[in-house]
Design brief:
Bound molecules: NADPH dihydro-nicotinamide-adenine-dinucleotide phosphate
CATH topology of the largest domain: Rossmann fold
Number of helices: 17
Strand order of the largest sheet: 9-8-7-6-10-11-12
Distance between the termini: 29 Å
CATH superfamily of the largest domain: NAD(P)-binding Rossmann-like Domain
Radius of gyration: 21 Å
CATH architecture of the largest domain: 3-Layer(aba) Sandwich
Largest sheet: 7 strands, mixed
Mean pLDDT: 97
Number of domains: 3
Shape: globular
Strand content: 15-25%
Number of strands: 14
Low-confidence stretches: none
């Protein structure tokens, strides 16, 4: 068949082209290969080199960031902004500060962001950025100097209706404040050039909670679709950052029993389940930049040094830390121990092979593109509020977020139904592809 031949050639081509960008190759090859059934029925999408155009970012900006540490030593980092696809709207996506950041990781994140944003009713294109700067153990002034130095270059490439960055790993409200402040000064313009801002200067209610809460709304919808209730279910969460802590909080509020949290040093297991009081303690410890180990010691809980949570029996797994944190071995453990659902809070936390294992074992699997779209959805709502000089209250934003997650779930069901089963990955990828593809086709070749 034409589509099979086309896809085979295309996948072979990108395998060679991006052999030095493993994460980018992983996300793009998984995405395009999941579209094969749709493309067999809709060969018109194979025209005009559409897939070849989709995989190439519109623009990549790479630059050096020089800053001075507290000892007066000059430090140099590399930063990037990937402006991947603006066919639906201005580029939109977070900024990551982590020593592991490189071009491959940012390109995979930006590519995913294009299709995640396409699932949301607010018109936004996709991008991502970041630096190999490590904010850990840096003073507030060092972080500020780094952010300001980075924006002396990046400010000329972003802005309202152009590219609107937000937070990600290592970038929270504090860093956004530093980046927004200097950008506003350099542009002499106070329009919405960042989301995830503090409530004191144009941030949206519920932005902090949005990704974690949205993930749990999506999980609840997936479970409901399969006649399962979230109440009483045992849930394992990885990470202890913005996404993880809010996912844990929402699971508790919905009556589930969350037994784990983690950081890059290890995992804490609370067999009795966290409660809201314990989570507030954990938030406090994290705010002081302390490690999960300190929390485990304080509450005399089990601490698994250098281990992730996936070997501990659970019913639901919510990976909320980073990419490729559930590999084949972890999937094997989870399946053996009877996991019924996995939903991605982080971006691409489950490897391609592990996803296949879950689907073959009838584990309900929610891909990040859909399941963690709540964060960028509320970022979109932040842009809308800033543009109209209004502030919706918390309930209004939460209702809108719930509605967006509901519609994303409906799209996944519509495009992912295969017989009696739902493949949420195929559903999310197909629904998001159609919108981006149609927008590109309607705007001509440029
Ligand atoms: P944070 O920086 O707030 O937290 C990240 C957490 O993950 C920390 O607990 C961190 O531990 C842990 N972590 C990071 N890298 C590793 C690693 N290599 N191995 C083990 N643990 C690690 O980030 P967020 O919570 O904002 O983001 C988490 C994930 O969710 C990312 O994949 C991000 O792209 C995705 N995401 C975030 C959104 C948002 O709104 N913030 C929106 C959609 C997706 P440690 O402190 O030890 O580094």
């Amino acid at each position: 068949m034409k589509a099979d031949r086309y896809m085979k050639n295309f996948l072979n081509k990108i395998k060679i082209l991006y052999s030095d960008q493993p994460e980018f190759l992983q996300s793009t090859s998984s995405f395009f290969s999941s579209l094969i059934q749709f493309l067999r029925r809709n060969e018109s999408y194979l025209k005009y080199s559409l897939l070849e155009r989709m995989i190439e970012p519109e623009r990549i900006i790479q630059f050096r960031v020089c800053w001075i540490n507290d000892k007066g030593i000059v430090k140099v980092n590399t930063a990037w902004r990937i402006q991947f696809n603006s066919s639906i709207g201005p580029f939109k996506g977070g900024v990551r500060f982590h020593p592991s950041v490189n071009l491959s990781i940012l390109k995979f994140l930006a590519f995913n962001q294009v299709f995640k944003n396409s699932l949301i009713s607010i018109p936004m294109g996709g991008g991502k950025g970041g630096s190999n700067f490590n904010p850990k153990n840096k003073s507030e002034l060092e972080i500020m100097r780094f952010c300001q130095s980075m924006m002396t270059e990046l400010h000329r490439h972003i802005g309202h209706n152009i590219d609107i960055p937000a937070g990600d790993i290592g970038v929270g409200e504090k860093e956004i404040g530093f980046m927004y402040g200097i950008t506003k000064k350099l542009l002499n313009n106070a329009s919405c050039c960042f989301t995830g801002k503090s409530l004191n200067y144009g941030g949206s209610f519920f932005r902090k909670e949005a990704t974690g809460y949205g993930l749990v709304y999506f999980l609840e919808l997936m479970l409901k679709q399969h006649g399962i209730k979230i109440e009483g279910k045992k849930v394992s969460v990885s990470g202890s950052g913005n996404v993880a802590l809010h996912a844990i909080e929402k699971c508790i509020l919905m009556g589930a029993k969350v037994i784990s949290a983690s950081d890059s040093d290890g995992t804490v297991i609370d067999s009795a389940g966290f409660n809201l009081e314990k989570i507030n303690q954990l938030k406090k410890i994290k705010k002081e930049n302390k490690r999960i180990k300190i929390y485990a010691e304080k509450f005399k809980l089990i601490y698994l040094k250098n281990q992730n949570p996936w070997s501990v029996p659970t019913e639901i797994a919510l990976p909320c830390a980073t990419q490729n944190e559930i590999r084949e071995r972890d999937a094997y453990e989870l399946i053996k121990n009877g996991v019924i659902a996995v939903a991605e809070g982080a971006n691409m936390p489950v490897t391609k092979k592990a996803i296949r294992m879950f689907i073959e074992s009838n584990v309900i699997f929610g891909p990040g593109k859909a399941a963690n779209a709540g964060g960028v959805a509320v970022s979109g709502l932040e842009i809308s509020q800033n543009s109209s000089y209004i502030n919706w209250d918390k309930n209004e934003v939460e209702d809108k977020l719930k509605d967006i997650m509901y519609k994303i779930h409906q799209s996944c069901v519509k495009y992912g139904k295969i017989g009696k089963k739902i493949n949420y990955t195929i559903g999310a990828n197909t629904a998001s592809f159609i919108k981006v593809a149609n927008a590109m086709l309607e705007q001509g070749i440029y």
